UniProtKB/TrEMBL annotation:
Membrane topology label: Single-pass type II membrane protein
Organism in which the protein naturally occurs: Capsicum annuum (Capsicum pepper)
Domain Nucleotide-diphospho-sugar transferase span(s) in chain numbering: 184-406
Protein name: Glycosyltransferase
Coiled-coil segments: 70-118
Length: 430
């Protein structure tokens, strides 16, 4: 009996230990199932950077009621709002620092000028400022191959540059013939495909084709006139870095005189105008009327028609190179933008908070000498006095039937056919 009692006590003790182990395992499994990341861990560890991932884990692992899940979302949105407010504060601080930096730069420039050689101002009414910025120091390492070509082509470090692909081959032929007829020696065709290279070589014309560039080559070979026009700002930069002044020419231009004989060279740029009279070409005071303003209803504004981005003379100065850089960068970033609009915006917009404007000095060309096709077909051909003028160039920029109007300009001004311009409408025949 004593032995049995002893065995029963041992058996009861062992069964209690076993039961405790079983209960512990069950409880552990339950906790492991409902609290996979630990009982005291507030949130599951993030397995991804996506902000909603940990809440997806919670939704699957924990049996949240809809109200609890909404509380989690509200908490997350609140944290996002706080983060957004913090970022806005940082942006404001950065803008303030940028403004301070701009002011410091301006003061540094003033100091630099003051440390240089200074001169007294001329008497009242006789003061004349310098309109041109200093020329850059040429850097031949930018493009040794182009350096060699320009050394042979340029005259007085000046050259006419035109871009062309096979799509405008017929117009290029008229363009080259007019340049040769006038006797201009310093011009260079920038070929955008091999067909134009061969065409120029066959006609004894100086030609340059850039080193392979995937983006430039694609646009150059397949692009429209507008797309090709946008390339010039990127390509011209190298010419200026090499120390050459460039007279940039579109392909739809007929030369009737040597343009280098009619440049002033007193500004960083001389630009053809899209205007058709003194007001539109050179600027005017345009008054805006707001009757609800009462006494202050009339607001005076200054207006000028666009500078033509297809014909301009540009000197190798830092502001001029920065202009080309800015326009090229914007056209890359904004592929649907019109290159002439971007060109004019960069020339016209002043500095203001958060933006530093360009300081390119510019001159507008005489719109009767450097004539756009609106001036010719809408005004000049109908005026007996103006018809006697011989322009330096005629740019067929306002009309889509470019080739036929270019031929008509040659017939009228070169071959003396008095009615060569008569059959064309004033505007587009679309």
């Amino acid at each position: 009996m004593g032995v049995c009692t002893e065995k029963c006590d041992k058996w009861g003790q062992g069964s209690r230990i076993g039961a405790a182990i079983v209960i512990g395992v069950v409880v552990g499994c339950v906790f492991a199932f409902f609290y996979p990341y630990g009982f005291f861990y507030p949130d599951p560890p993030a397995q991804t950077d996506h902000p909603f991932f940990k809440y997806n884990v919670l939704a699957k692992s924990w049996s949240y009621e809809s109200t609890e899940w909404m509380n989690v979302l509200r908490s997350y949105i609140r944290r996002l709002s706080e983060r957004n407010a913090e970022l806005q504060k940082q942006v404001k601080e950065l803008n303030e620092k940028l403004q301070i930096a701009e002011q410091e730069k301006g003061r540094a420039q003033e100091l630099l000028v003051s440390l240089g050689e200074r001169e007294k101002a001329a008497p009242f009414g006789k003061v004349k400022s310098t309109r041109t910025n200093p020329l850059v120091l040429p850097d031949k390492s930018v493009n040794p191959r182009l350096t060699k070509i320009l050394a042979e082509v340029a005259v007085g470090n000046e050259v006419i540059v035109v871009l062309a692909n096979s799509n405008v081959k017929s117009m290029l032929e008229i363009w080259m013939a007019s340049v040769k007829r006038v006797g201009i020696p310093n011009y260079l065709v920038v070929a955008l495909d091999d067909d134009i290279v061969n065409f120029c070589k066959e006609n004894g014309v100086h030609v340059y084709k850039r080193d392979p560039d995937e983006t430039v080559d694609f646009i150059g070979k397949t692009g429209s006139n507008q797309a090709v026009s946008g390339l010039k700002f990127q390509i011209l930069t190298e010419f200026l870095q090499l120390g050459y002044s460039v007279l940039l020419s579109d392909i739809d231009i007929v030369y009737l005189q040597n343009p280098f004989d009619h440049l002033y060279r007193d500004s960083d740029m001389e630009v053809m105008s899209d205007g058709h009279n003194n007001m539109t070409a050179y600027g005017y005071n345009d008054v805006s009327d707001e009757p609800d303003m009462g006494w202050g209803r009339y607001a005076h504004t200054m207006r000028i028609w666009a500078y033509n981005s297809g014909f301009f003379y540009i000197r190798p100065t830092v502001p001029a190179i920065e202009l080309l850089d800015r326009v090229a960068e914007r056209l890359t970033r904004e592929p649907n933008s019109w290159d002439q609009a971007v060109f004019n915006e960069e020339l016209a917009f002043p500095s203001y908070p958060g933006y530093i404007g360009l300081y390119v000095s510019r001159r507008v060309m005489d719109f009767y000498l450097f004539m756009n096709s609106k001036v010719l077909f809408k005004i000049v051909r109908k005026d007996s006095s103006l018809k006697k003028l011989k322009p330096v160039v005629v740019h067929i920029n306002y009309h889509p039937d470019k080739l036929y109007r270019m031929k008509a300009v040659v017939e009228y001004y070169v071959n003396g056919k008095q009615n060569a311009l008569d059959t064309f409408p004033d505007g587009s025949d679309w």
